[in-house]
Specification:
Strand content: over 45%
Oligomer: single chain
Radius of gyration: 42 Å
Distance between the termini: 103 Å
Number of strands: 16
Largest sheet: 5 strands, antiparallel
Length: 356
């Protein structure tokens, strides 16, 4: 019976998880400066970096013990059992079964042959004992490995004859959100914008060109509304609201080294229904003010809200406003298009605001 099985021992290696890791000796390589849109709807000027990576494959090593049938024993057992069976049948069919020697040889052969034929078929097994895990490393190109804020104090963004000016903070964030000039309630309808950017640095002005599309903004809209505290929910219109804007005032303000235009007005919803997705659109020949949006969000019925916002402008924009009269119109919009298209207008010299 000890010859019924053959036991072999060997070492087996199996491929496990494959992952990418930054190479231990990788030195980050700087790419050209770029502009990202953050999750809360802000522009951020950064220097992106890439690092050399490696493909790391875990190779598990096992000690394997395999117990298999001994073919020779199996063949001997099958032959012995077959011959013994034939002998037993022949003896039993003889005229004198008790006198035939096959009557004794046959059963004895079966007693020996059957264990030899059956034994190799049972008790077979394979066992694996973990021995070691090795890592197989191979170069896998470069992958992004972080960003660094781009040094800068001020930036001007221009597109289609319009301009946006604003400060850049120490983390690279631009003072003006893209949703200040792109309708956040209709972001999916905008075409791609080619933005020409000039960043003021200590060493001079650095130009940059960025293509901004709706896909880059769609994921940031909710974060933007959350950051500025706007209720952007839009529900089914059950009762029609009556939106009315009044008391438009426009003035120039200066805070430290930053310049801006203050727009103040009052917007009321005289009901009977709530208004959703309310925002104000600014229309004016001034390239630094035209196309701006001021967000209100949900405005319940019988509610009056005072709007007071400052739009950053450049030094050149301030000089133009101080020299010439300004024509500016504010149009109220809402999600269900119930607001009147009649604009609230301002015309005249934009004077410095004494309260600012």
């Amino acid at each position: 019976m000890s010859a019924c099985h053959v036991t072999t021992r060997f070492e087996e290696t199996r491929q496990g998880e494959i992952r990418h890791e930054v190479a231990p000796d990788a030195v980050p390589r700087a790419l050209p400066p770029s502009m990202d849109v953050s999750e809360d709807g802000r522009f951020r000027f950064v220097t992106p970096f890439v690092c050399a990576t490696q493909s790391v494959t875990d190779m598990a090593v096992f000690d394997v013990e395999r117990r298999r049938p001994n073919v020779a024993t199996l063949v001997v057992g099958v032959i012995a059992a077959s011959l013994s069976a034939v002998a037993t049948v022949s003896a039993l069919s003889d005229d004198d079964p008790g006198g035939s020697p096959l009557a004794y040889v046959g059963p004895a052969g079966l007693a020996v042959g059957l264990p030899l034929a059956i034994g190799p078929m049972i008790g077979n097994s394979i066992s694996r004992v973990p021995k070691d895990v090795k890592e197989l490393r191979a170069p896998a190109g470069e992958e992004p490995c972080g960003t660094k804020p781009l040094p800068g104090r001020h930036a001007t963004i221009a597109w289609s004859g319009l301009r946006v000016a604003g400060a850049i903070d120490a983390d690279g964030y631009f003072a003006v959100s893209p949703f200040a000039f792109i309708d956040a309630f209709d972001v999916g309808q905008i075409p791609a914008l080619v933005l020409q950017i000039e960043i003021e640095q200590e060493s001079g002005t650095m130009p940059m060109e960025v293509v901004l599309d709706a896909a880059a903004l769609a994921g940031a809209r909710d974060g933007y509304f959350k950051r500025i505290g706007i209720d952007a929910t839009i529900e089914e219109l059950r009762k029609v609201p009556r939106l009315e804007a009044s008391g438009l005032r426009v003035s120039r303000v200066r805070r430290d080294a930053e310049r801006g235009v203050r727009i103040a007005l009052t917007i009321a919803n005289n009901g009977p229904g709530d208004a959703y997705g309310v925002r104000l659109s600014v229309n004016t020949p001034s390239g630094e003010l035209d196309g701006r949006f001021i967000y209100v969000g949900r405005l319940p019925a019988k509610t009056t809200l005072a709007i007071d916002t400052v739009i950053p402008i450049s030094e050149a924009g301030e000089r133009a406003l101080s020299a010439d009269d300004l024509e500016l119109a504010v149009i109220v919009r809402d999600a269900h298009a119930t607001a009147s298209d009649a604009p609230l207008r301002f015309r005249g010299r934009v004077l410095p605001d004494p309260s600012r």
